């Protein structure tokens, strides 16, 4: 098993509903594997990080069009709220995978501004 060889953070981004059951979450937790909070979620509950207590992981792919859409200010503010709420639960990782039109970098930069309190008064366009 992987955990016998390494202690690095490990994540699983499941797409089948079977991975969103208490039994599956127990299995992930036992092996210290984080369940990714994905956007858009493929199944109900897929938008919340779970399992591994030492870290939380969000992976946003663009919505409504996966890989192509950027995120509006309200969505980024909500994500910042979720990431802040995970404080005290170890590491927090956020990956933007909406790269087809180059939105990942500006979305990540805006999230950093929101997380670090450098929030301009005007809304992002």
From TrEMBL:
Pfam families in the record: DUF72
SUPFAM superfamilies: TM1631-like (SSF117396)
InterPro entries found in the cross-reference section: DUF72, UPF0759_sf
Signal peptide: none
Chain segments annotated as transmembrane: none
Stated name of the protein: DUF72 domain-containing protein
Source species: Pseudoxanthomonas taiwanensis J19
